[in-house]
Amino acid sequence: MVKYTEVMIRYGELSTKGKNRKDFIGRLAGNVTRVLNDFPEIEIHPRHDRMHIVLNDAPFEEIDKRLKKVFGIQTYSPAIKVPKTLEDIEKTSLELMQATFKDGMTFKVNTKRSDHQFEYDTNQINNMVGDYLFDRMDNLKAEMKHPDLVLRIEVRQDAVYISNQLLHGIGGMPVGTAGKAVMMLSGGIDSPVASYLAMKRGVEIEMVHFFSPPYTTEKALAKAKELTGILANFCGKINFIAVPFAEIQETIKEKIPEGYLMTVQRRFMLQLADRIREQRGGLAIFNGESVGQVASQTLESMVAINDVTTTPVIRPVATMDKTEIIERAEEIGTFDLSIQPFEDCCTIFAPPRPKTKPKLDKAREYEDRLDAEGLIERAMAGINITPIYPNQTFLDDKAQEDADLL
Ligand code: ATP
Ligand code: MG
């Protein structure tokens, strides 16, 4: 197997200059450092035009898996650093070609040179290395326009860097560059996908999760935390804020007409999310609503619920079909956990026939019957914040077995 010594990272959507560019690069370097922090031997050099990682014997295969999940990386190439002699360039070029070449593939050598004192120019290097490879490999075919393989040789001041692969990152913006927000995370399929999409645009999220003991179990809470652990792969760490919701639900159930149970519950959720956002210095609220998916997500419902705040409420999956959301959930690795059947606080007190077109004035009127401020303050007093790291688990084997039996 080829032993790469470095990785060259090319930046994503870096249209901006000056301070924003600095912030982009600084955040990306911080995020890359965080996801690779269990490899202390690695050196990370963020530069203006790209980032250079020196592996120092760390295995590229594992680093590759982590880099694939870092937002802000457009493409990256593993490379081998060699001394500036023709012999070393040829030897390593052959090794890299033999590792990736399959019969019938076309190739091209592409040399760049920033050291103009080097004894050969780019054309000479292309030709010499090409000839060297033709002499030693069978069935090799050159192709200038659309080759299957490109062998990239970069002659720099300090050394020559050779790479044979251009890998695609997930693009987006480095998490943190767009500021902070709270994300309303349930245990379902949609909100984890919405979380991923928020982070993709550079938003640093903190999860707000409502749970209702004794109506919901520890496992439902553990499931939401474990989903957060999967999503933490995309940023290194996510704070999880658990909010007790049982008293609010019991009170609503007792005092509000059935058709408006759901609308008023959702108004409380949004008010609480907004309080937490303010406390945490966030700028917006994200959720996993999709237009028309269920009664609480019709435009009429959104009007009646969104009424409680002027904070931007961003719904990344608003226009996606369920099938599209599921596809995304499978890609990011949350789907299998999302479909585990643990009760959620919303399903417990779900009315059989919630209004699909609630009236705003009625929602306000009913809510006024309650001591909203007292309920909100008591819920706020009971919140619990935990930092969650990549792939941290919270559901033990027993919980999994029980879920399988349901
Ligand atoms: P998801 O939408 O994540 O698949 P779901 O379909 O069970 O879960 P809905 O009832 O559709 O959830 O709720 C819509 C949105 O409201 C969720 O995407 C989420 O943002 C928010 N939400 C619902 N339940 C909770 C909860 N227990 N804690 C935090 N947010 C919640
Ligand atoms: Mg949903």
From TrEMBL:
Domain THUMP, residue spans: 61-166
Source domain of life: Bacteria
Keyword Transcription regulation: no
Residues in coiled coil: none
Reaction equations catalysed: [ThiI sulfur-carrier protein]-S-sulfanyl-L-cysteine + a uridine in tRNA + 2 reduced [2Fe-2S]-[ferredoxin] + ATP + H(+) = [ThiI sulfur-carrier protein]-L-cysteine + a 4-thiouridine in tRNA + 2 oxidized [2Fe-2S]-[ferredoxin] + AMP + diphosphate; [ThiS sulfur-carrier protein]-C-terminal Gly-Gly-AMP + S-sulfanyl-L-cysteinyl-[cysteine desulfurase] + AH2 = [ThiS sulfur-carrier protein]-C-terminal-Gly-aminoethanethioate + L-cysteinyl-[cysteine desulfurase] + A + AMP + 2 H(+)
GO-annotated cellular components: cytosol
Location in or out of the cell: Cytoplasm
Catalytic class of the enzyme: transferase
Enzyme Commission number(s) of this protein: 2.8.1.4
Pfam families cross-referenced by the UniProt entry: ThiI (PF02568), ThiI_fer (PF22025), THUMP (PF02926)
First-listed, main subcellular location of the protein, grouped into a coarse class: cytoplasm
SMART domains: THUMP
Pathway: Cofactor biosynthesis; thiamine diphosphate biosynthesis
Keywords: ATP-binding, Cytoplasm, Nucleotide-binding, RNA-binding, Thiamine biosynthesis, Transferase, tRNA-binding
Stored CDD domains: PPase_ThiI, THUMP_ThiI
Residues engaged in binding ATP: M184, L185, H209, F210, R266, G288, Q297
Listed InterPro entries: Rossmann-like_a/b/a_fold (IPR014729), ThiI_AANH (IPR020536), ThiI_fer (IPR054173), ThiI_N (IPR049961), THUMP_dom (IPR004114), THUMP_ThiI (IPR049962), tRNA_STrfase (IPR003720), tRNA_sulfurtransferase_ThiI (IPR050102)
GO molecular function terms attached to this record: ATP binding; CCA tRNA nucleotidyltransferase activity; tRNA binding; tRNA-uracil-4 sulfurtransferase activity
Any one biological process term the GO annotation gives: thiamine biosynthetic process
PROSITE patterns: THUMP (PS51165)
Function: Catalyzes the ATP-dependent transfer of a sulfur to tRNA to produce 4-thiouridine in position 8 of tRNAs, which functions as a near-UV photosensor. Also catalyzes the transfer of sulfur to the sulfur carrier protein ThiS, forming ThiS-thiocarboxylate. This is a step in the synthesis of thiazole, in the thiamine biosynthesis pathway. The sulfur is donated as persulfide by IscS.
Protein family: Belongs to the ThiI family.
PANTHER family in the cross-refs: TRNA SULFURTRANSFERASE (PTHR43209)
Name of the featured protein: Probable tRNA sulfurtransferase
